[in-house]
């Protein structure tokens, strides 16, 4: 299956080559904010990240700031479509893991280490991988019922893969659980009612053909 996430894709890294004097050290700025048209990948070193299970990635407005110690922060509006292995054999009691697997396209772990925000380098779970404010969906419970009240925050998980050299793969994820009552009330009950209407045609006098045909067409007209 596929799912599209809309939000903000944010990266943090430190490049000592970009360090400069703050106002306390005689400089002019405490934070350098790049112009809106600035694309970090065109002007400075970046981790060159890609999404391993990504299908499409539409980028919008972006922001790049550089701190006096060379810390870089980038944030960009993004609409990302992900490919997932979703199984629906337990409908209406199904549960799915929505995840995004990130890695550097050109640099192994000797050059760049991936981790969630405030996380630790190396394999394991730590930091803040994905976070959101209050979010609610009529079909799914997102990270349990608490997300509808106060949002959620999930950690990131790093796995080191060996491709001749070690590469860090960072996975950020959250879980969704189907709201059973919604599916039963809005899909299953209606399907059963339509099926009952269709079967009623068998109890109509065979000599009244138009009536039998009408009984079969009624569910189709209702769906339109």
UniProtKB/TrEMBL annotation:
Which stretches make up the Neurotransmitter-gated ion-channel ligand-binding domain?
A: 2-179
Organism's domain of life?
A: Eukaryota
Q: Where is the signal peptide?
A: none
A Pfam family name for this chain?
Neur_chan_LBD
Provide a Gene Ontology MF annotation, just one: extracellular ligand-gated monoatomic ion channel activity
Q: Which GO terms describe its cellular component?
A: membrane
InterPro entries the record matches:
Neur_chan_lig-bd, Neur_chan_lig-bd_sf, Neur_channel
Name this polypeptide is given? Neurotransmitter-gated ion-channel ligand-binding domain-containing protein
